[in-house]
């Protein structure tokens, strides 16, 4: 189980599209969804467009579900909070915007190699070098971030499986504390690696 996808080789139009164009299109689509989805009807239209993108990339529903499933517990919390304070319809819209945005990001990573993505970002930031901007450091930070996401999802899965094995109910003490501790340990490991390479 992964989040933000693991590259799947293919020959679809989305696979052949240059990474830079995909990233710009991704940002534009997420921004458009965030600004225009204000009703259940517009949310349904946005979901239909995302489904069309998945069909274009030849990513099946089961694969899409596996990528988005780790978000479920977070969505439940957001839905409950929004329902209490703004009503169920607003809660559906907020969660729908989050799901469609994450789905778009996922389909991009499923059809784009991580190295190609980082190369595209580095090339886009190259003009900033003349102003002393640490492009290489930022590219490494992005690489570490991308690497950390599946690691943390795996931690969430392991903690949840341990909870189920012990017959415990989900709760902040059972889930959040172990996940936070694991996240801190992962960050410490990354920091030690960077320090060892003289990038402290």
TrEMBL record:
Keywords: Membrane, Transmembrane, Transmembrane helix. It is found in: Membrane. It is a multi-pass membrane protein. GO terms for cellular component: plasma membrane. Signal peptide: none annotated. Its main location: membrane. The chain crosses the membrane at residues 23-56, 68-85, 91-110. PANTHER family: PROTEIN ABCI12, CHLOROPLASTIC. This is Putative ABC transporter permease protein. It comes from Gordonia amarae NBRC 15530.
């Amino acid at each position: 189980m992964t989040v933000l996808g693991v590259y799947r080789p293919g020959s679809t139009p989305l696979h052949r599209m240059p990474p830079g164009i995909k990233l710009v299109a991704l940002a534009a689509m997420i921004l458009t969804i965030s600004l225009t989805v204000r009703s259940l009807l517009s949310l349904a239209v946005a979901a239909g467009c995302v489904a069309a993108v998945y069909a274009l990339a030849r990513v099946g529903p089961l694969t899409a579900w596996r990528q988005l499933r780790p978000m479920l517990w977070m969505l439940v919390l957001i839905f409950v909070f929004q329902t209490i304070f703004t009503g169920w319809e607003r809660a559906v819209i907020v969660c729908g915007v989050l799901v469609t945005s994450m789905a778009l990001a996922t389909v991009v990573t499923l059809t784009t190699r991580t190295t190609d993505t980082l190369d595209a970002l580095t090339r886009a930031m190259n003009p900033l070098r003349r102003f002393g901007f640490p492009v290489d450091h930022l590219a490494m930070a992005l690489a570490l971030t991308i690497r950390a996401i599946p690691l943390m999802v795996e931690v969430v899965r392991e903690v949840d499986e341990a909870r189920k094995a012990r017959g415990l109910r989900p709760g902040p003490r059972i889930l959040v504390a172990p996940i936070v501790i694991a996240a801190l340990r992962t960050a410490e490991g990354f920091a030690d690696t960077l320090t060892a390479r003289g990038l402290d």
